[in-house]
Amino acid sequence: MHRPSLVLDLDRLDGNISVVKECLAPNLALRLVDKSLPSLPLLKHLANACGTDRIMTFHLPVTAAVLAAMPAATVLLGKPMPGAAARQALSTGVLSRIDNPLARITWLVDTDERLSAYGELAEQLGQDFAFCFEVDVGLHRGGYPDAPALSRALEQLKRYPRLKCRGIMAYEAQINRIPGLLGGPKKALAKTRTLLGGFLACLGQDQRSILNIGGSSTALLYDPDIEANDVSLGSAFLLPSDFDVPSLARLKPPLFIAAPVLKVVDPILPGLDKRTWIMQMLGLAPKRGCYLYGGKWMAEPVHPDGMKTDKMFGLSSNQQFMALPAGSTLKPDDFAFLRPTQSESVLQQFGSLVIYSKGTITAEWETLGPA
């Protein structure tokens, strides 16, 4: 590894898989989130280990790649696609090269207008479209706002015989973010369950095959009494630091950026030169530092101990300066390690994942770019 690399500790990942399987409510089928796990070998490893062929997808080129590489996979859109995007992808774009894609895709409908657009598209193409309704259970990011609105949409659905409702998608990432002053996560979870129940009561028995909830920060909060049957989870397996929440406390971070150290220096502030010691004496500038190969990632330094970014020197995507403790023994050609704050964007910045297991590098797994 002579350049910045994204390293995945496979043993830690497998440990996280075991924890998730142990803690997930048994009535919830696991759905892997491809945007948070943008690597086909990674998705295949997780699908095999978790015994699932359900994927939540967010970007049609990635959707096509997943469907092509995983013949048993079925996908649920995690965000609504414009009707024009669906038409182009199916007619001449990325989905046109997939055999019978509509049999494996469940689209997402968030408004009556989207429902009409998909209904008209299905009639024009002469094919059935399966979909779920996006419903709002407290996040307020869109979707049907309440049960009466969903009931009206279900009446409207009768105009479009080629549209097939498979259920609902209810994302509730807000639960762990609600402050104690407003009732905290416990009250937010109870509110989500109540709202979910209201939406589910609107559905017919033939409209309940996908009752989706969850995200990485919330998926393990549910007990077997939850009325849902499908839960989405992605980032939790890689545990970037944005997902350090109590419900994931048993998981361990397996994903790190390894960056070669190019230079180790006694820092001199441009413009101050020999007077840099004044800023150091005041604690405003470090006495030791290093420059990394690359930088400005969405990541936090974790090794060596005490390494941190520095406001005086700022960030650089070419050679990032990192402040070091005065007694640091770090040397050029050593490696610094940083823990990503999220997985999706960081994985897309690297061409591959370097797989580390049992003390050695065992493989490289390609990652999916943002095309």
From TrEMBL:
Source species: Phyllobacterium endophyticum
Which Pfam families does this UniProt record tie to the protein?
A: Ala_racemase_N
Specify the protein name: Alanine racemase
Domain (Alanine racemase N-terminal): residue spans on this chain: 9-236
GO BP annotation list: D-serine catabolic process
Q: Which InterPro entries match?
A: Ala_racemase_N, D-amino_acid_metab_enzyme, PLP-binding_barrel
Gene3D superfamilies (alphabetical): Alanine racemase
GO MF annotations, alphabetized: D-serine ammonia-lyase activity
Q: Which domain of life, per UniProt? A: Bacteria
